[in-house]
Predict the structure.
Amino acid sequence: MDTLFTFGIGGIICFFFLVIYLRSLKKREARALDAAEKGKLYSHGPQAQHPHIDNNYCIGCATCTSVCPEGDVLAMIGGKAVIVNGHKCIGHALCADACPVGAITMVMASPSMARDMPQLTPEHETTIPGLFIIGELGGLALIKNAVNQGRDCVDNIAARLKEQPIPPMPGVHDILIVGAGPAGISASLRAIENKLNYLTIERDEIGGTVAKYPRQKLVMTSPVEFPMYGKFKKMQLSKENLLAFWDMILNRADFNVCTGEKVDDIQKGPDRIFTVITTTNQYRARTVVLALGRAGEPRKLGVKGEDLPKVMYRLIEADHYINKKILVIGGGDSAVEAAMGLASQKGNQVTLSYRSERFSRIKERNATRIQEFIKSGKVRVLFNSNPVEFKPESVILEVAGQQQEIPNDFVWIRCHARNQQGCQTGRCRAQGTCPSCRCARPLRQQPIR
């Protein structure tokens, strides 16, 4: 009798905790379904690299849902991990690393979803043989991914050149790398390791877009393996620290780079040799690697008064601006970060204008922080708004169909950039032109005259 009583008590206790657990699962799944419905409002799915979950192997441990720094990209529905906010994914791949059964692999979005992404092979080669694209232009936003792509791309090129040896030709490089940002630097260092005849071209300064980030911006949050250095294990790295690290490695490696040269055209002759034409020179190479960011030229809105000196497109040092009335235009991470950086300076009154009704594609940490800035009154956000005119001491905005004029000292336009020739990568892919913000002219299949 005592034994039955004991088992009964134990059963009641187990049932009690089971009920609590099942209720928590139900609430968690309800939140996941709600997140999935909201995700549909923002986009039709992942736009670039994202996790692919094999439900045949998923054991429902939910580990992947807890490691993503971008928030609720993944959630548990029906006891399985699913993508609920694919538009938030920027390719950290921490979910794939954390999965204990290998049910998650990182894949790229289909061309129909990533309409502005170039069509690439798994070796990062375009539809034009010998022309490769790596880094942000290829759809990967993270520095870690760009570094990995640069390394792997050059390894593939080196293996190909080794399999099909060609006698050296005077003035012809094995690889010509366009861009000296994270992907370009990684590719260059790997070319040195593989003893390839390479040249890197950069139109601005070494570091690419990273060099133009605001001071002390956090640019890396996970370890990565750099060529000619090895595993870099720091979990967090600021812009300044990363640039100093690159400078140390490049000085040690005798980096072969030409800065201040903008690529105007790329042509491929019948001898399968590329000719890269810059503003000051011409170079020939067997292969070309486009390691470009997607910033391109600043996007001009075509708004009256946009040529005023107070209208700017890049923010380098936010702390240079105090006690000012500031307007930031845009709704992406760069716009939100600029608004918060400027709002943190003494006496600034910051307004953020965004044409949509909500922020849809910003990082989770930025979404959380901007809400704090809004609640504290540091940043005023005007959704469904567009600039109508910039005046020397004010700005006219159209907000929900009504025009408002607000006092203003400075304007930063932080919308998505467009390339120099107005090239849309999807269209270029169809027409056989170079899908590049800096090299948007057609790739001709005849030699230069």
Residues 103 and 241 are 35 Å apart (CA to CA).
